[in-house]
Design a protein that fits this description.
Blueprint: H1 10-18, E1 23-24, H2 25-35, H3 44-56, E2 60-65, E3 70-74, H4 76-95, H5 97-104
Antiparallel strand pairs: 1-3, 2-3
Length: 106
């Protein structure tokens, strides 16, 4: 795996989350909107750029290419990276509790 394990972009995070079920591009754009509850809308140019990068990083794999549609699936390394990012984001939220505690004292 060539992914560095650093913080992911929001686009990468939601693509991996949406690929917990194999999908092709058009379905994937819709699935990203669903898992992000509408906060992330991704166009084809952005999506295919992210897919290409994540495929090179070993986070996803192309499972089917019938000429019209390419179906992608998250890899074991991709699941591990997604879980690491999830834990990183949880820690960020926990750290933010200091902000809430600081506003209580004002």
């Amino acid at each position: 795996m060539s992914y560095s394990g650093g913080p992911m972009t929001e686009a990468m995070y939601y693509v991996l989350l949406a690929l917990m079920r194999p999908n092709h591009g058009y379905q994937l754009m819709h699935a990203i909107g669903e898992v992000s509850r509408g906060r992330m809308q991704m166009g084809p140019g952005t999506l295919y750029g992210v897919l290409s990068r994540m495929q090179k990083d070993g986070l996803i794999t192309l499972t089917n290419n019938d000429g019209r549609r390419k179906t992608y699936e998250i890899t074991v390394d991709g699941k591990a990276a997604l879980l690491n990012e999830y834990h990183r984001l949880q820690a960020v939220l926990e750290d933010s509790q200091l902000l809430e505690e600081g506003t209580d004292n004002d």
